[in-house]
Amino acid sequence: MPIYRCSFAAAVVFSMMTSLPAADLNSQINAIRNVSREGQGNEAAAAAVRALSGASANDLVQILAAFENASPLAANYLRNAVETVADRQLAAGKSLPNQQLEAFVQKRSNDPRARRLAFEVLTKVDATAADRLIPTMLLDPSPEFRRDAVERLVAEAESLGKDATDQAKQIYRKALSGATDSDLAKKISESLKKLGDDVDLVRHFGFLTDWRIVGPFDNHDFIGFDTAYAPEEELDFAAKLKAKEGEVAWGEITTTDEFGIVDIAKSVAPHKGAVMYLATTYEAAADRNVEFRFGTPNAWKLWVNGEFLFGRDEYHRGMAIDQYRVSAKLKAGKNVILLKLCQNEQTDDWAQRYQIQIRVCDPSGVAVLPVNSDSKSTTNLKPSKSRSPRLTASVEGASE
Amino acid sequence: MINLQTFGKAGSCRRVENVTAPNANAVRRIVPLVAAVVSATCLTGADWLQFRGNDVSGVSALSEIPTTWSDTENVAWKVDLPGRGLSGAIVIGDQVVVTASSGFRQDRLHVLSFDRASGNKNWERQFWATGRTMTHPKMCVATPTPASDGERIFAFYSSNDVVCLDLDGNLLWLRGLTHDFPNASNSLGMSSSPIVIGDTLIVQVENDAESFATGLDTSTGKARWKKVRPKKANWTSPTLWQNGDSTALALLQSSAGIEAVDPRTGETQWKFGDGASTIPSSVVTTDALLIPSNGLTAVRLGEKVDDAEGSPEVLWNDSKLGPGTSSPIVVNGKVFVVNRVGVLQAADVNTGSTLWKLRLKGPFSATPVAAGKHLIFFNEKGDAQVVDISGAEGEIVGENSVGETILSTPAISDNEMFVRSDGHLWKIAR
Hints:
A: alpha+beta, Jelly Rolls, 6-stranded antiparallel β-sheet, 4-stranded antiparallel β-sheet, 12 strands, globular
């Protein structure tokens, strides 16, 4: 019999006696939390999971508490331990610590993943838990809880008769306040429009709408992605820059798209084999961590305040809201965001899109708007003219 | 046809495989590799341990499955699944294992084990995806078929998460390959199914941005090797070739062609550099590899190649034998290919000469499997067409529907077939 099977059997026998001693529990948890890249710590983590799998139901909440600041890898190890303990308890006809689990779920400062797992364990033994807890979770830090709460409200609004328009609007508005998934927000927005209410999805999601733009620079044979053109060296919006087709100057581009899509192919030109740079400013009230969430079918690179954060050299494999998530730290005051967006030379009909959709949000997906933003802008780059889609200068001879 | 047994500890036994005649030698040599890791537990029944089965042929020569079935006939059981999946089921002793993905973002990864006889769920484990989960709507995160060495389950997902469980659902290790290598992903989704060779799990993570293949130690998940691969999206799965009496080779397909590597070291043994499809995968015959390349190209296997960059001899090529999405399958000296418009072509594996054609009702995403004298084709609408290939011409002898979209490749084991949709898993057997 393999060693791990012997260990697991021993752990199960041990579990029938009592909870793991606190020191043992902490030791196993630490081993799991130390798991890292490329399989480092896998053996120790696996051994720890086997030991934790032998813990009693009374240890569940402590294992759940260990999710706090755990890496995604460690969280999965911990999840397996929790599932194994709970399943074994239930298979043996034993009870779970329902009250402790519910208290853990309700404490919003606990890790969202652990809270959701605790909820799923709880609902296996408490059929009323979902009805009791989900309605309170509309603005929960956990996107999954929020989604459940929003779906309930949408269903409630949809069930109302035609003569309850005001009530339906009220419920849809409430639902929208918690909606961070695009499908639900879109559905609610469409329902509200039918009832005569407009929804500003740009502000709801925090899409960045106003940009300076310059290009095209050369990307034939994909050379542009790794070539540092002038905007990567210095961001001087007054400068004239040598580009693919001659000298160019920075212009402006603004989108009024409902979902914040900045469409270079339509608003500027359907450039091929090209690199365009987009820049904007974002004023943060205080130092804080945010996520930049992207959707684009084009290759891209992102810098914030001169620091390169991430880049991706992929073309025309699809585009969706929140396709990419990049964590960033904003400083209080003005932050400069620079994007490099590359288009390849494919001639297929399905390879012509040259666009990006980008927003700033917290880790749960709730929009983080800049200070002093208003209903006409989600950045601090105020359009100099009207707010209609335009490019005032992107080709030789144009001025800022 | 061979019915092989291997022996573990005293008194324990495990029937490893039904194999088809063309690959009998290869499988006989594989057995020691599999035997090195199979459980000492005595289990009954043959296994289907990975995409296209243990020898990656898609053939269960000893099995005979019903040619007709319906809700009331020849469906032993049907069970609900908690999420989507293009991954096929695998069969390990008395359990059937499938993966699934669920959630708005498809970021909830499931591994489920069902009792083979009753369909009762043995256990379910869930994980959170650590890599990107965006896919084309037709695909999903649970697209690659899991693999097993008979003792461990290796579940792989489009998010490039690899989860290793024992047969009781206990976590042995996990890897987040996009977590480790953040640009390794494809926004259309990843579909390559890993295979086990000896004590190494061969995984292809190939895409436009950060492309690699890796051989993971099946006991720890750590990489025995990792090598850069062509930077282009690739949905094909590795194929197995047993090279004489020496170690087996993993055949890695890409747009560049085929790279044959030592599964334990990743060292390149030879290359075929004339390009290959990035969707249907190659298939091995007794002494040749049939590559979806410029139609279908057969190259000789088993010849020693001195130069690491050397290419195997091209035996034949036929531009009209190009497969659509489904991979080709070889049975009894014939290769069967379904093209993009749903025409099944049978050709001689030695010459490439077309023997007969038969129009099927497509479109197809699933790769066909063989049971005895029958090929089973599931089209995307969930209609199964059973083709008798024993005569001079192919003949459709059964048409059945499960009434749901089927994009996954079935598993066959001991006269039983297991096929899954996004919502259900069926056992089809008399």
